[in-house]
Amino acid sequence: MRVPEGAPILTAAEMRAAEARAIANGASVTSLMERAGTGVAEAVHRLAAGSEVLILCGPGNNGGDGYVAARVLAAKGMRVRVAALGDPRTEAAAQARKGWSGPVGPFPRELSEGPVPVVIDALFGTGLSRPVAAPVAHAIKMLASHARLAIAVDLPSGVDTDTGGDFGQDLADFGVTLALGALKPAHVLQPAAAHCGNVRAIDIGLAFDDIGAASAVRTLGVPRIAKPRPASHKYSRGMVAVVSGPMHGASELAGRAAYGAGAGYVLLLTGGLPHPPHAIVRRRWSAAALDDERIGAVVIGPGLGRDDRAREKLEAALASPHPLVIDGDALHLVGLDRLSSREPPAVLTPHAGEFAALFGESDASKVVRTQDAARRSNATVVFKGADTVIAHPDGRTNVALAASPWLSVAGTGDVLAGAVATMLAQNPSAPLEAASAGVWLHAEAARLLDRCFLADELADALPHALAHTL
Questions:
Q1: What is the pTM (predicted TM-score) of this model?
Q2: Domains (range + CATH), the chain
Q3: 214, 268, 239: which is closest to 15 by C-alpha?
Q4: 103, 202, 249, 441: most buried, per Cβ within 10 A?
């Protein structure tokens, strides 16, 4: 099956806890391995289309899953070969090895025999904490790159389960990764996610709802965005105010995006001259303009600058009673103490450089860093990137699946700020849901555009993305 929306993402420790709970309730390591290997075999049987399969088995339980898959595939009439990186080192893996009646060749194997149509990597799974030996990593990459289809069991060998790191190695790319039981951070965090290809979840009968932290991190799904009602009007649909600075184009993009995401009224506080779209109401900046009780959310940061004038505008926004979306330059000016003491909700939308400037550097995973930032700032934090992570101060976290690489162009962050602001204006009591909806719309608009685009075009594509939620 494909990864479901809202699926839990578990660390290695949380997976071990889930497995231990299943064992305490009557399962065994062997039975879990049987379910995993059978699930892998069923997926491979569908994907391989009758081609010969080479399964690479490691010495641990991931290798045991591979032996079970080999046995089940052979029973289905498929041609299967197995190459092992040594003898099994766990009791369950040894038992699975005994169940495989075919030959087992050594790995790394000789590559002179030519490419193998389908390669299955069952060498190292969850919990790897060190680089794979260079000859092994090279052999996996060679086999995977020449195969018609390369499939990883649970995780591509060589990735760090919890951080999504690759230990600095040049690892193989897989077309499909079969996540056993649940997704792991490495399935959604870069650079590991780039090696996983299409991730599919294999149900092995584990329950996760009783593990406290396991339900806190989930994949981002299609948001539920309410349609306008017959009684709706421009203010009930959300009024977004955008505070501008010297770079008017950035705030203009945020305003256009706010409209594109469904706002009823957009107010741009700027010193610039009016120009299309004329639906955006433009007024000269004054702190008093933020006294309007109809404002549902304020965007500050895109094109703001970092001078004293910018600081004055930021302080006025922070002092206002409105929910805030803080982006761009404002993230370099705001202090954590000022943020954490503020009562109305705030959403921060930093990219990696802005995040480091505000929260510092760390070797922790992007999920952990974002969760820590949300607690420290008392704000919902959207840590942008190909693997965007959205965290609430209470620990709830959503991780967006890989976004379009075409988003790597100037102005797309301003578009995101505007989209998030609309969602926040419409749903101020649920900033995590609002931020997540904005991120989803932003990514969906990029997907619809498909190829190289301007940020202006991305803003214009938001209504089409919004239509996919209604």
A1: 0.93
A2: 12-219 (3.40.50.10260), 239-467 (3.40.1190.20)
A3: 214
A4: 441
